[in-house]
Amino acid sequence: MIKSILLIEDDELDVISVKRTLAKLAIPHELFIAGNGKEAVDFLDTKAIDELPDVILLDLNMPKMNG
Fold first, then answer.
1. Residue pLDDT tens, the chain, 67 long
2. Do 62 and 12 contact (CB within 8 A), yes or no?
3. Distance from the first to the final alpha carbon of the chain
4. What is the maximal distance between C-alpha atoms in the chain?
5. Which of 14, 21, 43, 67 could form a disulfide with 60 if both were Cys (CB 3.0 to 4.6 A apart)?
6. What are the φ/ψ torsions at residue 63 (nearest 5 degrees)?
7. Distance separating alpha carbons of residues 38 and 45, to the nearest angstrom
8. Cβ of 8: how many Cβ atoms within 10 Å?
9. Which DSSP category does 26 fall into?
10. Strand stretches in 1-67, DSSP E
């Protein structure tokens, strides 16, 4: 089963690291990326309850709205 993952991260190198790790683990997934907390909230607001991501990976220190 494909898992959906929301990555909330403003550092591009960290985003690349997560993508590489998921690829190495060969976990079937759909990855959504938000660059800050506001983008994440906006993304989540557009989803129905059954469309919410299975996992949220969250950076705590970000611009605009942090974790």
1. 789 999 999 999 999 999 999 999 998 999 999 999 999 999 999 999 999 999 999 988 777 766 6
2. no
3. 28
4. 34
5. 67
6. -75, 165
7. 11
8. 24
9. T
10. 3-8, 29-34, 55-58
